[in-house]
Structure formats: structure tokens, C-alpha cells
Write a sequence for this structure.
């Protein structure tokens, strides 16, 4: 069973449909015991970082999200950004799973970063075009396993232990996006193939 955390913000139904299309059972939940007993946990998100953290804290979900060690935890779009220490979007602390911050995209191109862009990675599975919608980004770090170029390097997939962040929308990225999501559901990507130093 896959638990998709429903904290009142985000594209939870789209993510649920994508997971079910891949053949998994998936529930929308904010219940501690259902999250704890799931095989995989997904934290989706669309909207403002500060609003999302407020909703998570009001539901008492931060502790369970940050304490999971025995299963994949996947953050999608804003959900990935919530994994970080702090965000400039609202000047608010995040879940502090990944070191580093969420900062405005500094690019000569229009912001938000909207539409299809290609992934750069050492993983053959990740060499595809995927669909982005965001105005803020994570800082580049040793945890990046795929990034995209948009006048600057933007982390697209990050992994630290069992926590996996996906900045783009795999559920809106066609068959390639679904294949990437499926790999994340199986535990993600090898730590020894990160893009450190790039």
C-alpha cells in the first residue's frame, strides 16, 4: 500500500491516479498509523511553501515524515522542496531532511520555469524530457541525481538515503515520467551516481 499524504494542498488525486495506473494500491491520508504502515509514502504539493508547512504542522505530520527509515519517502514538486532546511518562499523552515535551501530561480529565461525540459544525469533511465512548473529551486548539492538546465542548474531529482525528491511532475510527464516514478517507488536511485561537483 502506498500512502499519499493529503494535507490540504497539492495535486493528490493526479498523483493517486498515476500510482494506481502503475498497478499499486494507493490511499490519500493524513493519519499517522496509515502512513506508518504503508510500503511507500508520497508527499505531493502544489502552491506556497509557507502554506504547506503550516498545513503539515497543524496536522502534526512533520514528525512522522522526518522519522521514516524503513521505506521510500518521495516528495513531488513542492513536496520535494519541503524536504529542505529553509525556503525563501515565505522565509520559513522546512522539514530539514536535506541540507541546503530553497531559493528563487535566477535565470535569464522567464520565471516560473514552466513546460518541458530535459534531464541531465548519469542514470540512463533519467535521460528524458519532463514537465516542470516552479519558480523556486533547491540548491545544487551532492544529493542531486538529475538536474536540468534553464539558464542555471536546477536539481530535478535528489536522493538522501530513503528520501527521494522529484522537482518536476512525473504524473504529467508521459510514459517517461511514469517510469521514473515507478523507479522511485521501488527505492530510487543509487547514491554512488549522484551529480556531485557538476
Amino acid at each position: 500500500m502506498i500512502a499519499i499524504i493529503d494535507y490540504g494542498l497539492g495535486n493528490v488525486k493526479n498523483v493517486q491516479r498515476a500510482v494506481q495506473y502503475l498497478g499499486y494500491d494507493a490511499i490519500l491520508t493524513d493519519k499517522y498509523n496509515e502512513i506508518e504502515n504503508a510500503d511507500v509514502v508520497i508527499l505531493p504539493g502544489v502552491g506556497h511553501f509557507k502554506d504547506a508547512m503550516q498545513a503539515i504542522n497543524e496536522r502534526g505530520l512533520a514528525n512522522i515524515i522526518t522519522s521514516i527509515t524503513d521505506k521510500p519517502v518521495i516528495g513531488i514538486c513542492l513536496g520535494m522542496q519541503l524536504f529542505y532546511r529553509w525556503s525563501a518562499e515565505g522565509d520559513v523552515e522546512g522539514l530539514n531532511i536535506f541540507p541546503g535551501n530553497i531559493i528563487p530561480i535566477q535565470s535569464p529565461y522567464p520565471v516560473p520555469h514552466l513546460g518541458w525540459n530535459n534531464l541531465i544525469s548519469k542514470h540512463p533511465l533519467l535521460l528524458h524530457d519532463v514537465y516542470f512548473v516552479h519558480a523556486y529551486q533547491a540548491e545544487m548539492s551532492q544529493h542531486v541525481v538529475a538536474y536540468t538546465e534553464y539558464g542555471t542548474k536546477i536539481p530535478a531529482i535528489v536522493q538522501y538515503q530513503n528520501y527521494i525528491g522529484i522537482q518536476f511532475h512525473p504524473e504529467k510527464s508521459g510514459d517517461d515520467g511514469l517510469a521514473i516514478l515507478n523507479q522511485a517507488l521501488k527505492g530510487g536511485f543509487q547514491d554512488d551516481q549522484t551529480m556531485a561537483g557538476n
User: Anything to note?
Assistant: The CA atoms of residues 121 and 146 lie 5 Å apart. The longest strand covers residues 153-160.
